[in-house]
Amino acid sequence: MEIKVRPAQLGDAQRIWEIRNEPASLAVAASQEVIPLPRHIDWFDSKYFKQDGNFCFVGEVDGNVVGYCRFDLDGSHYLNSIAVSSSMHGKGIGTLLLGQSVAQLKTDKPIHAEVRKYNLASVKIFERNGFQKMSEDEKNIYYQLT
Ligand SMILES: CC(C)(COP(=O)(O)OP(=O)(O)OC[C@H]1O[C@@H](n2cnc3c(N)ncnc32)[C@H](O)[C@@H]1OP(=O)(O)O)[C@@H](O)C(=O)NCCC(=O)NCCS
């Protein structure tokens, strides 16, 4: 599968909102709240275009955005959040989107990810991209890439 990974633009905000609100993405999100689109666009603009330090990439297949990969600065590390549109799951896109986004981020800071233990697709993409398990609790596995 050919995927092009590039920094997100403000015009990608709606597509990212759509992917984030698909049932498969919501199921593993920290909050199941569906933010109204105008509020999401304001948040996206402020977070990735008006503040330093946060980065968002998107993956395109045939010119259509099929996933996003965010890196939010949290103290001395980044916290990652990634989702691929469910109609495109299982085609290797998440693995490539994560790997190419990390490469484009070009950071010395550690990247963290919190993965639900039952989320086996997510476990696979982080482990395939060299993330290492730091710890786990009843709910999550905590990964880090250094
Ligand atoms: C996690 C996610 C980004 C992975 O994206 P993807 O494009 O499907 O990932 P890939 O195709 O590169 O790899 C997924 C792997 O998991 C496997 N997989 C998928 N569902 C699985 C399941 N229920 N059990 C075991 N393996 C599973 C796939 O077969 C694939 O492995 P393979 O390449 O050996 O066949 C995507 O599933 C997603 O967006 N999920 C909802 C949001 C989410 O979970 N985000 C991560 C939060 S930490």
Describe this structure in words.
- With 146 residues, the protein is an alpha+beta fold.
- The chain contains five helices and seven strands; from the N terminus they run E-H-H-H-E-E-E-H-E-H-E-E.
- The protein is 34% helix and 32% strand.
- Strands 1-2-3-4-5-7-6 form a seven-stranded mixed beta sheet, with helices on both faces.
- The chain has one domain (4-106): Aminopeptidase (3-Layer(aba) Sandwich), CATH 3.40.630.
- It has helices spanning 13-20, 23-28, 37-50, 93-105, 120-128; strands at 4-7, 55-61, 64-74, 77-84, 111-116, 132-136, 140-145.
- Bound molecules: coenzyme A.
- Coenzyme A binds next to helix 2, strand 4, helix 4, strand 5 and helix 5.
Give me the secondary-structure topology:
Layout: E1 4-7, H1 13-20, H2 23-28, H3 37-50, E2 55-61, E3 64-74, E4 77-84, H4 93-105, E5 111-116, H5 120-128, E6 132-136, E7 140-145
Parallel strand pairs: 4-5
Antiparallel strand pairs: 1-2, 2-3, 3-4, 5-7, 6-7
Coenzyme A binds next to helix 2, strand 4, helix 4, strand 5 and helix 5.
For the sheet with most strands, the description reads: 7 strands, mixed
In which range does the helix fraction lie? 25-40%
Apparent shape: globular
Summarize model confidence as the mean pLDDT: 96
CA distance, first residue to last residue:
28 Å
- Output the CATH topology: Aminopeptidase
Bound molecules: coenzyme A
- Specify the CATH class: Alpha Beta
Widest β-sheet, arrangement of strands: 1-2-3-4-5-7-6
Low-confidence stretches: none
Radius of gyration: 14 Å
- How large is the share of residues in beta strands? 25-35%
Give the total of beta strands: 7
